[in-house]
Amino acid sequence: MKILISNDDGIFAQGIRTLANTIESQGHQVTVVAPDRERSATGHGLTLHQPIRVQKIEGVFNPAVRVWSCSGTPSDCVKLALSAILEEAPDFVLSGINHGSNLGTDILYSGTVSAAMEGSIDGITSIAFSLASFTLQEFQPAANFAVKLIQQLSENPLPEATLLNVNIPPVTENQIKGVKITRQGIRRYIENFQERFDPRGKSYYWLAGELVEELNQPEHIYLPPDLATDVQAIKENYITITPLQYNLTDVVSVQRLKDFSEERKS
Question: What structural domains and CATH numbers belong to the chain?
Answer without folding.
Answer: 2-184+224-247 (3.40.1210.10)
